[in-house]
Amino acid sequence: MSRASIHFDKKKNVLIFPSWRDENGLSRKSIKYIKLEEEYDEKKLGEKIIEALEVSAINEQENKLQNTWKQATKLQSWKAFQKKYECVMIDVNDEGIWYIAKYRKLKDGSYGLEKGDEEKYSREYTEPLTAQQLGHIVLEMLEIK
């Protein structure tokens, strides 16, 4: 299983965080994040997301106390991070099924989907996606309001 969260600011700058699972199975953002600030196209975005998913699949343990988002952005609070960034989450399970969802900003300060959101905000793909397809889908999902 692999997971990556892709965060976009208003200028479409991108932070891609591979995830790793700690001993309790909790998903954590990796320090091996990828930043895309220059012009990029769908294919380059997709390639970087695939790179992050490959890092996630290795599940290398890291310091679970590190504030990866803080190191990546220099923002001082989670509230400031969440205000600045939209989120698209990608999970690929062991059977190769891709789950891609635009996570909403929830009232409790997290990103996620509320009950009934799945149909509008998430998609499932049973075939492998090319970098081009993946980048296109993620940018398309970002536009869902």
From TrEMBL:
InterPro entries associated with the record: Cdil-like_sf (IPR037891)
Protein name: Uncharacterized protein
Upper classification of the organism: Bacteria, Bacillati, Bacillota, Clostridia, Lachnospirales
